[in-house]
Design goal:
The protein has 461 residues and is α+β, with helices and mostly antiparallel strands. It is built from 13 helices and 16 strands. Bound molecules: 4-amino-1,4-dioxobutan-2-aminium adenosine-5'-monophosphate and magnesium ion (MG). 4-amino-1,4-dioxobutan-2-aminium adenosine-5'-monophosphate binds next to strand 11, strand 15, strand 16 and helix 13.
């Protein structure tokens, strides 16, 4: 394995090296040709200087344009330019793959993110999407670091599931039935007993319910996997396929849950700031001005806390400026979530104790009989980044809730068993991984922080 360009850039002048990568730009004069080579290891590329008096191969150089894959050997020389400490004075150049000027779509100019989405197979070769990919990598690894350091066990929960974990009915069906000849029951409904699993199966919306079974044996667990939602919402923060991190802790109430969520987010932000210095400088300058300082301040400051009831009081004062005016009982929209974090709290805020009607069946009912021990972490620019709760650990109360919501307890027999055998207060939350990437990079559209977005009418590549 040859060294990557990020490493080469830190070497002493005088070192003989081989550099491999894709040409970003080419500038030529009569005597010299400059190539900027990038291999995705850093934002910065390595400047290759080709002395045309020594390197007399116009035919080869003519084929090397923006996008071409080349390897270049030579000696690192102290650079007179201010952009880099060293540059490579080329002795040999090997051309692997050309990228013709008239057809390669990523010529040196500013491209809109919308255009780049249409060429998602190439867009990672740009500064912005390359930096997103590196930050996403750091964040994934940091997720495991955080939980492993705190003794959480990583659990792989199923992707195909027969239960609707959120009870929201926004699931993709998984079937091998012949859509042209669907078996029917006498009442006209689909006979899923003839389907692959012998029953109706869906793509999971959350690994939480299965995660709870492991938490009630291993105490602290987390999942980190893909989840799917057939939400028909075409927004900048929703995907049909996204990654979610779901820790679940036994012997834990809402207070402990909130503390872990805050610690976890801050850990992720710190890791990115320390490991992706150059990329974060880039986002801070070109994507979301001052982002770096904001994140540093968030790390330093305790999150705000507010009950839903108090949050609604604040929102009602500003009802005139919302598309959807709020009253007690309304589900909070993005505009409300943003207002609470941006205007009222000026930073992340954890809102708790939502009305039971707007939250999932498994959340612990408060003594008031009206609200549940839910918590949403809301952040500026995005709104909800984390959703979680203390779980209802009392069998009868949980059964009552399910009956009220017309959920069939028979479908959840194993989940109810957790309340029959060794039940204990437990809590957890879900962090939308792409929302976390959005938050730390300042990227506005969630479709630009996942390699190949799946959303309404979008499943290319
Ligand atoms: O609030 P949600 O629906 O909570 C759950 O799924 C719980 N089972 C979590 C738990 O308690 N273990 O989703 C959790 C988070 C949201 O806060 C949001 O960040 C993200 O997942 N999310 C989405 N991200 C992208 N696209 C979507 N369609 C999303 N839906 C939720
Ligand atoms: Mg939620």
């Amino acid at each position: 394995m040859n060294a990557r360009i990020a490493q080469l850039l830190s070497l002493q002048a005088g070192t003989k090296v081989v550099a491999e990568g894709w040409v970003r730009t080419k500038r030529e004069s009569k005597t010299v040709c400059f190539l900027e080579l990038n291999d995705g290891s850093s934002l910065k590329g390595l400047q290759i200087v080709v002395d045309l008096a020594l390197f007399n191969n116009p035919e080869l150089l003519g084929k090397i344009n923006t996008g071409a894959a080349i390897a270049c050997s030579g000696v690192l020389v102290e650079s007179i330019g201010t952009n880099q400490a060293v540059e490579l004075h080329a002795e040999t150049i090997e051309l692997f793959g050309e990228a013709p000027v008239d057809t390669y779509p990523l010529q040196k100019k500013r491209h809109t993110l919308e255009f780049l989405r249409e060429i998602a197979h190439l867009r990672v070769r740009t500064n912005t999407i390359g930096a997103v990919a590196r930050v996403r990598n750091t964040l994934s690894f940091a997720v495991h670091e955080f939980f492993q350091e705190h003794g959480f066990v990583y659990v792989h929960t199923p992707i195909i599931s027969a239960s609707d974990a959120e009870g929201a009915g926004e699931q993709f069906l998984v079937t091998t039935l012949d859509l042209k000849d669907v078996p029917k029951l006498p009442d006209g409904s689909v006979d899923y007993s003839k389907d692959f699993f012998g029953k109706q199966a869906k793509l999971t919306v959350s690994g939480q319910l299965e995660g709870e079974t492991y938490a009630l044996a291993l105490k602290n667990i987390y999942t980190f996997g893909p989840t799917f939602r057939a939400e028909n919402s075409n927004t900048k923060r929703h995907l049909a396929e996204f990654w979610m991190i779901e820790p679940e802790m036994a012997f834990c109430t809402l207070e402990g849950n909130m503390a872990v969520a805050e610690q976890f987010l801050k850990f992720l932000f710190k890791r990115v700031l320390s490991r992706n210095t150059e990329d974060m400088e880039f986002f801070s300058q070109f994507v979301e001005k001052g982002l770096r300082n904001v994140l540093e301040q968030v790390i330093e400051t305790p999150f705000s806390h507010m009950t839903y009831t108090d949050a609604v009081k604040e929102l009602e004062k500003a009802n005139g400026q919302f598309d959807y005016p709020v009253h007690w009982g309304s589900d909070l929209q993005t505009e409300h979530e943003r207002y609470l974090s941006e205007t009222v709290c000026k930073g992340p805020v954890i809102v708790t104790d939502y009305p039971k009607e707007i939250k999932a069946f498994y959340m612990k009912l408060n003594d008031d009989g009206k609200t549940v021990r839910a918590m949403d972490v809301l952040v500026p620019r995005l709104g909800e980044i984390i959703g979680g709760s203390e779980r209802e650990s009392r069998l009868e109360v949980l059964q009552d809730r399910m009956n009220l919501l017309n959920l069939n307890p028979a479908d959840y027999w194993w989940y109810l068993d957790l309340r029959r055998f060794g039940s204990v207060p437990h809590a957890g939350f879900g962090l939308g991984f792409e929302r976390a990437v959005q938050y730390v990079t300042g990227m506005q559209n969630i479709r630009d922080v996942i390699p190949f977005p799946r959303a309404v009418k979008q499943a290319d590549f």
